[in-house]
Request: fold
Amino acid sequence: MSNKTAEELELKIQMDVGELRALQAKAEARAGGDALPAQRRLRSIYFDTADHALRKAGIALRVRDDDGCWIQTIKAKTKVQGGVSNPQESETEIAGPKPQLDQILDGSLRAKVQDATNGALVLPIFETVVERTSFDLHTANGGCVELAIDMGHVFSDKGLQPIGEAELELKYGNVADLLDLAGALFEGQHCRLASRNKATLGYVLIGAESAKPPKPKPVSLPALTTGQSIEQTFIQQMDPIVAAILHNWHVMTQSPNPEGPHQLRINLRLLRSLLRAFRPVIDGPPLRALDKKARTLSRHVGQLRDMDVLVEDIYLPVVAQTDGDLSNEQRILTGRLKRYRDMVRRHVLEELEQWSHASFQIELALFTRQKAWRKYVSKPDRKAPIDGLAAKALDKSLGQAKRHGDHLTKLTPDERHAMRKRLKTLRYQGQLFATLYDTDKTNAFNKRLKALQKIFGYINDVEMAEKLGAVTQLAGGSDESDAAIVAHVLETHQTEADHAWHKAKKRWKQFDKAKMFWH
Reply:
């Protein structure tokens, strides 16, 4: 009997049959003619209690028939994010297809299974059968990555679903080896990173998990403690921001809910604000590259978000309030604008499936694990308390906003937009470091800043509304009724913008005179 315990690092890519065949041909060419792939038929039986207690505990239990040898596998931390799976795994060779929980080698995993099942019987709930073709591919730096190409089905008494997946597992070497090989295999291709593993597909099939797209959600930042280290704070803030980016990126690809791209863009801005705040101490090529990719992604997501704003916040509120009902001309134009927005959405999603963008998800998911940034910062700087760095970052962002605010009445549209971005950075950095300071003071600051930002945001949206005429033409309309509707929308918002700008001057004076919470 053999046992094996390990923590795996895997990349999972969803692919159809044609894509998998093309990938196999590329892998064969890379491996060379003398290195034949291994081919196996794998039947896996998944077990759980009647109330799915193991799944609720984040544990997968399967027994696999691997060429007549039965392998019991326990996996914990099975969540897949950004195509990355990093489960804790324990494998045991057993005598037959029934689980033997007392044979789990890893003591901590055995205890988790025992706690979750609490003595309840584990039953077979679904099976997977896949034809696996696998290659051991070596990297230039001496690493080794196993590429597994799986085609098959998950089935139960509820029905069956196809499985098409490429999986890259790091056998030895470092994370860079895994990324380099993945890049060599997928560069120039559309790439759909998996958000579910085979176990999740099975639980969806039997109705134990929802097949509905996930809902957008904002980032949840942890509380900070005065005096904690810069390094601890950096990791503590990065992890939830990355998790929110990956979650809302997945939401955006699965659902037309406009809140998905909205939250994703907020998450990306929060990430960039974090990187900017820590730049005096934690900097270097890896972080600069991360910031550049986040900026590029934000621009792509912004195309979709801007169309949502143009239709939902600029156009529809005006035409809908005319007399409560849309006229025939308004209804026709509304339909065209929504169809054009759908076209923009398809274009953006296709662009984000390119490996250059899809790989960014993998880099984010592996970021704190890699720790490549650590070589560019001294140990004393990493261990210094966060308080001083936080105050300096907030002072710098405030100063950048004030350079525009001191000349508020003379700002050009571009300068107003720049000031709006500075205020956003200040707000996000205030959000990052708020728990280091007095709650009442931070709440008062946020209230004043949000009121000011709301005005600048609306003015920016109205300036963006100038694009409505061009978008209407791109959407297939150019007649006199379209022009009249567009003119009415712009006139209505311009009047409101004039009032808003008058308020902005007053709000800025109030904000500028207030004492900042970190002083």
User: Anything to note?
Assistant: The two ends are 65 Å apart (CA to CA). Residues 268 and 295 are 8 Å apart (CA to CA).
